[in-house]
Amino acid sequence: VEGFFKSFPAGEEMNRMYHKWKRETKDFFVESSLFEKFGLRYLGPVDGHDLDKLQKNLEFAKQADVPILIHVLTKKGKGLEAAIAHPERFHGLGAFDPITGKSEPAAVGTPPSYQDVFGHALVRFAQANPKIVGITGAMPSGTGLIHLAKEVPAQFFDVGIAEEHAVLFAAGLATKGFRPVCAIYSTFLQRAYDQIHHDVALQNLPVTFCMDRAGLSPNDGPTHHGLFDISYLRCVPNATIMQPKDEDELVDMLHTSLHLPGPGFIRYPRGAGTGVTIKAEPVAIPVGHAEILREGSNIMIWALGPMIADALKLADRLESEEHISVGVVNARFVKPLDRTLLLSQATLIPLLVTMEDHVLAGGFGSAVLEALQDAECPTAVERIGWPDKYVEHGTNGEILRAAYGLAPDDIHRRVLARWRNLSAQHVEAGI
């Protein structure tokens, strides 16, 4: 019909009148879609599981010379009853029982996950304080807030897949005396960056952000690796950024953040914890204070979160094999950084090493370099972290680390080479 009208000299106007007549005639029988009311060409709804219909509509749209919208309806999990009944279990791609839909059970003796430790701790705190509320964006199970939803439902809110709204909602609650806890994956919190800045941090509101999947998340792939949060949060004024070395310290950090005057960000990895015993009562951690785990006189390693275990093993190996005195610091806080301890060590230690499960660009190591630069301290620094790349999917984190030079042997070679090079320079300079 369009081709017929456009064959006349006044075809464009005739075609416009035809579309107007068609829309008004259709409206008489069936109300137009929202898209049509905005003047868009609209096809649908189309059954997204009917491949023949889907293909025909796509082919038609391909030939159109104007913007066209195809409205496709699909059902999550179609064809697998367990997936339809429990859609949230199938956000990821881990192994599962095709009948029940449940994930493979953890091996006997596996420590609880960081997510569950966080969830149970928040239940305790919320039961003691009705002003504490948990907020998630359609991920109650994935974040551990499912425990709060079951135990204290009046203090649990699931806002759906709307992280921007979750943060704005938390900001509003905080202005009224509540202590909101936003449990959002590190990578998904990027979606609410404007709200973090203008609605929470600008007003210095006491919102706690619990950032699951911080660091490498091998089974999820590049869209889910939490390798950028330190970089995008370090520049936010009023932000307190921390990462625990184990589950017990996670509970302490949650307790600490719930008493901060402004926004607190806690990052922790996916999966099982270290298996440490969690204290009966949490303690507040002095903000901006690191923890010395091991003294050393030649090299001092400043590590964050899961990299602390690697740092301690590296220190043992360098000392036993190379007779190098290596200390380890649990940095705990990225912002504010413990500059007092850092600078006191930098005046005595020839080499500082930073280790983080995060990209190097703008990360924890960058914060250390900036602090040393500001103090005009020339101490050598070797930074261990992920490169300026999107890291691909992998079922095994160790394989991915090896691919990017972050396997224990690779780190050992880098640190040892840097130490030997530094020692040779000192000998040459007569130091």
Return the structural class.
alpha/beta
Approximately how much beta-strand content do the residues carry? 15-25%
How many helix segments? Answer: 17
Low-confidence stretches: none
| Shape by Cα distribution | elongated
Rg value: 27 Å
Q: Strands of the biggest beta sheet: in what spatial order?
A: 4-3-5-6-8-7-12
Question: Largest sheet at a glance?
Answer: 7 strands, mixed
Per DSSP E runs of 2 or more residues, the count of β-strands stands at: 14
Q: Give the averaged pLDDT, no decimals.
A: 93
Distance separating the two termini: 89 Å
Classify the helix fraction into a percent range. Answer: 40-55%
Short description:
The protein is of the alpha/beta class. The chain has helices spanning 2-6, 11-29, 34-37, 51-63, 81-85, 114-128, 140-143, 146-151, 163-174, 193-201, 229-234, 247-257, 307-322, 339-346, 364-374, 397-403, 408-429, and strands spanning 41-47, 68-73, 132-136, 156-158, 179-183, 208-211, 240-242, 264-267, 291-294, 299-303, 326-330, 333-335, 351-359, 380-386.
How would you describe the overall organization of this protein?
By secondary structure, this protein is of the alpha/beta class. The chain has 17 helices and 14 strands. A 7-stranded mixed β-sheet has the order 4-3-5-6-8-7-12, with helices on both faces. The chain has a 5-stranded mixed β-sheet with strand order 9-11-10-13-14, sandwiched between helices. Helix 13 links the parallel strand 10 and strand 11 (326-330). The relative contact order is 0.07.
